[in-house]
Amino acid sequence: MRKHVVLAKPFSLEDEKDSEHTTSILIQRILSLFKNIRPGSDLTNFQLPPQLNLARSQLQCYGEMMYSFNGPDLLGECGRGDQPIERLKSMVTWYISTLRPLVFGMAPYNPIIGETHHVSNGHVNVLAEQISHHPPVCALHATHEKENLDVMFCQYFTPKFRGAYVEVEVKGKRVVKLLNQRETYEMNQPKLLMTFLPATGAHWAGKIVIKCPETRLEAELQLLSNSFFSRFTGNNKRSIKGNIFESSTGNQLYEIFGHWDKTVTAKNLKTGELEVIYKASESIAKLKTPIVKNLQEVSDTESAIVWSEVSEGIMNKDWEKAREGKRYVEEKQREYMRQRVASGQSWIPKHFSVTRAGKDWDCVPLQPTVPQAPIVVPL
Q1: How far is CA 345 from the centre of its chain?
Q2: Which value, to the nearest 10 degrees, does the dihedral of the CA atoms of residues 126, 130, 131, 133 take?
Q3: How would you write 94-148 as a 3-class SS string?
Q4: Which ranges of 12-118 does DSSP label H, i.e. alpha helix?
Q5: Among 85, 142, 150, 165, which one is most buried in terms of CB atoms within 10 A?
Q6: What pTM did the predictor assign?
Q7: What are φ and ψ of residue 190, in 5° steps?
Q8: Which is a Gene Ontology cellular component entry for this protein (predicted)?
Q9: 231-to-87, 102, 224, 225, 226 alpha-carbon distances in Å
């Protein structure tokens, strides 16, 4: 059977106007799903109907943070700075570029175990694998061929219903290594909030910490949510503020402020000089849809193949086809798990070595670099 690959266009700033048509019918549909759910409930295994699904897997969303960009290669820029402070400032800029617009009431598919996503954009090669289904854990490895950079994510999330909103806390490790400089940058992930009352919205919120043990430099950034309460304190929609400082002394070097969907500025606290370090219009607008460069090399576990029928149904608004496709994927997953339990076999990821201590997960890629992918972002 011929492989059927369906790739949806990444959601970018230019698509937001089209998404702002949220109707009362959509809101009512969303609220009806939660009417029998008690506040505090874990929504990890909660299933949405196709009408409320984005035409992509969560695995693809993670990958898009890395390979879906327009304009400057901000990840590669992290390794080009002559001084440690310049490299950390570039790391802050790159991190901000990974914050992407969210669509209220819409969510990606829950990846099945063993699902993979492999895409390249220029010198950036990305490979993600779903290493656990319950709980849902994703491992992501990305390498930058030219600048000798290594990115490792091991992420798992916990969505909880809070009554007036859904809070998604993302846990795990995110590490970027500048191998030429022998520097490691450790960072966390902000929370995702989907609010129903008193106003609808979907936004990132919380503290971001980026630190480098070797240089003893650190950045702390605060994302202010677009909530009802924040509107009383000024123009906080998608605003970001924080500082870059020396971890050992607390000496502040830069002040960071702006809006991650517009521009972000760094102020040198010694000289007073202002520098625009990020422009969203140059990085996350007009994003391109990846294309298949070599169909024969696309893995059968690739997200774009696993969910092809579902995505095609959603993109064509053929909800019956989408429902049937989703039912097929989920039932195939359950049958595979039943067979595995019956045979006493443990799941072994294909691309990562995995360790678990209680609720904490960690993973190490089996290969030192990610190869060029058969799916690429067109130039």
Answers
A1: 31
A2: 170
A3: HHHHCCCCCCCCCEEECCCCCCEEEEEECCEEEEEEEEECCCCEEEEEEEECCCC
A4: 16-19, 24-33, 58-67, 74-77, 84-97
A5: 142
A6: 0.92
A7: -70, 170
A8: cytosol
A9: 34, 19, 10, 9, 7
